[in-house]
Amino acid sequence: MKLTLGIDIGGTNSAFGLCDSDGNIHFEATTPTRAYCTPKELVDYIHNVIDQTSLLNNIIGIGIGAPNGNYFTGNIEFAPNLLWEGIVPLAALFEKKFNIPSFLTNDANAAAMGEKIYGVGKELDDFVLITLGTGLGSGIVIQGNLVYGHNGLAGEYGHIRVIPNGRVCGCGRQGCLETYASATGVVRSIKELDSENKDSSNLVTIINPTAKDVFQHAQKGDLFAKEIIEFTAKILGEALADFACFSNPKAYILFGGIAQSGVSFSQKVKAYMEEGLLTIYKNKIDVFNSELHLKNAAVLGSSSLAWNELNKQL
Hints:
The chain is of the alpha/beta class. The protein folds into 2 domains: 3-112 and 295-312, Nucleotidyltransferase, domain 5 (2-Layer Sandwich); 122-289, ATPase, nucleotide binding domain (Nucleotidyltransferase, domain 5), CATH 3.30.420.40. The chain contains 8 helices and 12 strands. It has a 5-stranded mixed β-sheet with strand order 3-2-1-4-7. Strands 10-9-8-11-12 form a 5-stranded mixed β-sheet. A two-stranded antiparallel sheet has the order 5-6. Helix 6 (223-247) packs across helix 7 (263-276). The longest helix is centred in the last third of the chain and has 25 residues, at 223-247.
């Protein structure tokens, strides 16, 4: 049985798994990304874990999705949400350790590939996957193909500035979309959003709150939590309205923890997007939640990257 190793490097956690060409996952695990001071430590850890299975020799290729992952060079380049600074030759590190071909792309591109092959994107040739995790990423599919751009770094919607002189971003600039519409952005809104409902909210009493806390409190009727969700949906929806001018997608697909909160959030995003769209785009763009929340979309996507690249070599 031939398998590929799919790896998703996230700002908080890294997931990895072994997949066959039909998309069946035969092994999967996660580990905190920040537990590894160097990328080599993570590479060594993943190798050791896989080595304890009986499947190491079945692996014929490795696909990696990572923030600021450059498809052409195999490097992570200046990712603001990772501890590893500068240029990280991650594909080369995995290839050296495992002695098999390794391929890397942006983590959102990998998730988009998984969505295209296994999820709601099956029937779509033109869509944008928006990952709403520690940061905000995007994978752009046009006429069935991922868009990589000239240097392999296309699709950084999270770092398009939406608020002039807004929140400071990890990239060093201000007002980036991900500082508002991401899990960390939602948490920042707890402290930074000016609201008359703030003092009566239980959210402000939580030590180290999460975006999940905000959505749970909103479901319980917390007015401040509801206001934060509305604010987040508005920022994201208005941004997606502007982004439509670039690729004229048939749909935006929301993936990640925030999207898992339910269809109500995506419906709010859709409503704000419609308000801001150019007339020529109105009522022509859908906003879906990913169909792969119950599966490991990022691992499937990264794995399918490896299958796709290996098939090119045949």
